[in-house]
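Support case: beta-D-galactopyranose complex. Customer-provided input:
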Amino acid sequence: MKLLVLPVLILLLTTVAVAQESRIVWQPVASGVWSAKIGTPEQMDLLKAAGGKPRLDALEKLGAAELPAALKDSGFQINRGQVFLRFPLREQEELFGFGLNFQNVRQRGRTMTLHVDHYGGKDNGRTHAPVPFYVSNAGYGVLVNSARYITVYAGTGLRRDSATPPKIKDRNTDRTWEAQPVSDSVEMLVPADGVEVFLFAGRSPMEVVQRYNLFNGGGVLPPKWGLGFTHRMPTLSTADDIRREVAAFAEHGFPLDFIGLEPGWQTKSYPCSFDWDKGRFPDPEAFAREMLQKGVRLNLWLNPYISPDSPIYNAVKPYTATHNVWNGLVPDFTLDSVQRAYKDFFLSRHIGIGVSGYKIDEVDGYDQWLWPDVARFPSGLDGEQMRQVYGLMLQRLTAEWFHQRNQRTYGLVRGSNAGASALPYVIYNDYYDHRDFITALVNSSFAGVLWTPEVRASKSGEEWLRRMQSVCFSPMAMLNAWSDGTKPWTFKEVESQVREVDLLRMQLLPYIYTTFAQYHFEGKPPVRAMYLVDDFVQAAQAATSKLDSTANPYAVAAKQGIKDQFMLGDNLLVAPMFAGQTSRKVYLPAGNWYDFYSGKLAGSGQVIDITPGLDRIPLYVKDGGLIPMIPAAMRAPRSEDILPLEVRHYGMKESSFNLYDDDGETFDYENGEFTWLALQVKKDASGNLKGEAALPKSARYRDIKWTLMTAGR
Ligand code: GAL
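Agent response - structure generated as follows:
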């Protein structure tokens, strides 16, 4: 008998040493959204830093939803300053998200540590927006609202006590042996005493994403000029250089809505003075006025680290970190005194004289440039927390300054995080792989952020054109010539094709603006991964695991992850081409799809092989897709412009499209100052398709011309 006591004691001790898991208790917080507070969550978190206000009305409109059954049995443990989270995962589930990844769209089976950083060429969690939010195709999404470096096991771990243990296989003899046996959970480690977690329901991945975006305030609605073309000047450009550049755009017939001033507009940069260099810009007020009169807006580059030469240096100094960045003070933006000093100065010296936006640089990484994690800030936040929220805070503050003036802005930022949907900023970086840039575009749709695959330089005209084509189908059509001084027409051999795609972007502005309105009002991102398209998802889910690239293409698609094509809005499928590529595959969702340029049938729920030639980016429209367009112009429409509208109809189906419009500049839309114009194409008595729309007196469009791209051919 005595012999038994020792093993029993050992067993008991080991059981005690492994902390008990507790069940996560979900509480409803909005329609289709639940939260759980685990332990004692920290004062600072991502959603607080981003400052979005849930759009409860819009969430309500999505309809009621049940607590996703799959996540009822989620658990946590708190252990020595760490929270462990476990969310169940079933065998067939696909996972998307976990921030702005550049190489993988499907995240199941990956591990990462989410850490705001400059992207370093690997999807390891270090990125410009390491958003701790993931979407499952089983109809839910999970957000871990912590400003900590969260380690994620996205379906890699397998519990000893799993209720669904995979079959054990013998590698010696079984060819179906897998290196990664099917995991039964997503697990995360949050280095904090507590954390708040959110759960979003959805009948489809799109609905999950909609709820996430709406919970964060709905997507941003940029000013119309923000969706035109933008060009960034070489860093030491003067006011006269910019005048010449603006004139050159006009001479070459290239559109231009806003121009970016890089570090040299300031007296000092790295660290920054935030003050105009009077040598290069003798009269900033007059210059800004002159540009506005020409219809060209100004965007100012900055990083937030203050030079001793800055007029606000002394005011901010008491409220800065223990460590400097590039010899500049690092302000604690959670503090009122810092916010006030920046606001007063920026309003009087920039925004007040006509500057329309900012490019907020260097708020992401690298570790060797930014403050270390051991840094401390006067508010009590530590270096790690600050790293996770710094970009968010600057986006929110600057956005508020513009909002208080009832003026929309649209700018650039290099560091962001969860909760950013409503913030008027687009992420960019210095990395320059064109394919990875498109993958980031696809992934941005799961993360509530916007991304631009900016164009800077190219080795050939072909590469130049391919990059220009894809940037024109992104949230910001931008040439960033800060170091190379390139122009859209630099490669003469493709100048006319570049002009054509720039002008096509301008023609498509009513459609693009409406896709952003959907982002704002319904939470649907403007650029969408194929996995967010309902018909496509169904087809992908119906696939068996047997891979066959001709008979069962969706299985192949689902396996590899579709990362080189995406939807822009409801109707347009974009399939970018890359330098050196002459043909490619395009995965068409269910139903008929038509070539945008010719209206010809391209395929139906299948994979097509295309050899499109260099001149144009492949674009497809779904059956019944309506694309509203305006005449190509050098600037985006102003609120007083009344324009003729061409509505293109593709395919043979009756259909409708709600065209959004407002003044394009102010926040009056928040008080109901907007219109949704119902465009309809119906069959008449003899079966011919006919367009109709009742134009209200107040409409900014007149003379609708209906073009039946397929039926009229
Ligand atoms: C980089 C930024 C570039 C450019 C440059 C100017 O950090 O990513 O786009 O602005 O700074 O110094």
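The radius of gyration is 26 Å.

Case will auto-close in a few days if no follow-up is received.
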